[in-house]
Design brief:
Blueprint lengths: L8 H5 L2 H12 L5 H15 L4 E12 L11 E3 L4 E13 L5 E10 L20 H13 L5 E6 L6 H6 L5 E6 L12 H7 L4 E7 L9 E15 L12 E11 L10 E6 L6 H12 L2 H10 L14 H23 L15 H14 L15 H11 L13 H19 L7
Length: 430
């Protein structure tokens, strides 16, 4: 999937027998979504050893085209207008370099009918939102060898039970606040944030988030301080602590370009924040959340196009999503490896025959000058990424704009065409 940039079984197999084999693999009851997800973290656990890891989690809806006659066992998504599955994934990112270390864990499911009991009357164990806690809890085992883990999530993860049960020594949370929570000393979270003095201002760069939200700069005012959040009066287990001590880091954009949505982040964290530099570090770590959105784009519209799959059953589709999500994460690592931040081996994304072909192609795409020579250690992922980017049309100069996902997609397409001939080079013609 990584080398070809597709999930279509017919094109992946190359021949009917291989397509049938992979179809049987997906249909095998011994192959489960849970075990496939468990395998996500096997390499990541090794890569995370001794690092400060940002464990970034989020959910994406996968909308598969269906008709009333061909639902394929898929439940409703969104507001009931579509049918599909939901993917909740956690990515591990190095807090210092920003490099993607791989998938950690997650959940994949399709809804089985509608729930009639109102959300506020259901215990957490019966809500889809339990995935935020379950995924973070599962990450503790996968990332046990990390020096520090900081779980990062958006507003839907602002659940009191999460704050009360998950943090331990070396295991922290950063979540954007959704609720104007009551504080133990009286008053509310939002009012307490508004009363804090401005500690600093800074211009930050916001990455693009689709065509409607292009990349832009923003000047933000920073304020921060300790808060003690009180346990909600309703809908929360009585055995949770009555209050939780956290730190509020708030950034506000005072002047917004026309048509842009102003930035106002209220970030709650278990990290101690003693000065403005530490507060900005919390903001920077939260900004890293965009990488999980890149993962979903690579899986869907800008890469593997998982939503175009025509598999007949929901069971097979869920397994295919689990496999494709791993392929999307490796593709994301390949894109990141272009700047040499990763020392991971090329074998993470390419097989022995493919690496042999890359070795030969490297000599052809390298230029005559030092600036156009592959600067990365041979047979590393960064080395392979440089070659693929050159095949996709990048000029190779360090001063040029770094190659993006589209360039890598073109390069992988070209590489696959070359690889087809490469595998036939020793075939004797009659």
């Amino acid at each position: 999937m990584v080398a070809r940039g597709i999930v279509c079984l017919r094109r992946l197999g190359g021949r009917r027998s291989a397509e049938v084999q992979f179809g049987r693999f997906l249909a095998n009851p011994k192959v489960t979504v849970e075990r496939l997800i468990e395998s996500w973290g096997e390499q990541t656990a090794l890569a995370a050893s001794g690092r400060h890891v940002l464990a970034i989690q989020d959910t994406s809806e996968l909308n598969f085209r269906t008709t009333p006659e061909r639902r394929r066992g898929l439940g409703e998504i969104g507001k009931g207008s579509g049918r599909g599955a939901l993917l909740h994934a956690m990515l591990a990112v190095d807090a210092d370099s920003g490099g993607c270390l791989g998938l950690v864990t997650g959940q994949i499911w399709t809804r089985q009918g509608r729930v009639s009991v109102p959300h506020e009357r259901r215990p957490l164990a019966e809500k889809e939102s339990r995935r935020w806690l379950a995924t973070a809890a599962a990450a503790k085992a996968v990332l046990a060898a990390a020096d520090t883990v900081t779980v990062i999530a958006d507003r839907e993860s602002d659940i009191y039970a999460e704050w009360a049960t998950l943090p331990t020594a070396g295991f922290h949370l950063i979540t954007r606040a959704m609720h104007d929570r009551a504080l133990a000393e009286g008053g509310s979270l939002y009012a307490a944030g508004a009363a804090l003095p401005t500690a600093d201002t800074r211009r930050i760069e916001l990455p693009a988030r689709g065509p409607q939200r292009p990349a832009r700069g923003a000047r933000l005012a920073l304020r921060f301080g300790p808060v003690v959040v009180r346990r909600p009066q309703h809908g929360v287990a009585r055995d949770l602590p009555e209050s939780v001590a956290l730190t509020l880091v708030e950034v506000v954009e005072r002047r917004t370009p026309p048509g842009a949505e102003p930035i106002h982040w209220r970030l709650l964290t278990t990290h101690a924040v003693g000065d403005a530099a530490a507060a900005w570090r919390i903001v920077d770590w939260y900004k890293a959340r965009w990488i999980v959105e890149q993962l979903f784009r690579t899986l869907k519209t800008q890469g593997l196009k998982i939503e175009d799959s025509q598999l007949d059953s929901a069971d097979g589709l869920l397994k295919l999503i689990a496999i494709a999500t791993k392929a999307a994460a490796i593709t994301l690592q390949l894109v990141q490896a272009r700047d040499g931040r990763s020392n991971q081996p090329a074998a993470l994304a390419f097989g022995p025959t493919e690496i042999e072909a890359l070795d030969t192609l490297n000599a052809r795409v390298e230029g005559a000058t030092r600036l156009q020579t592959n600067p990365h250690p041979r047979r590393t992922l960064a080395w392979a990424a440089w070659i693929v980017a050159r095949l996709g049309g990048w000029d190779g100069y360090p001063s040029s704009k770094p190659p993006g996902p589209i360039t890598f997609k073109h390069g992988l397409d070209y590489f696959h065409a070359v690889l087809t001939g490469w595998t036939l080079k020793n075939v004797c013609m009659p």
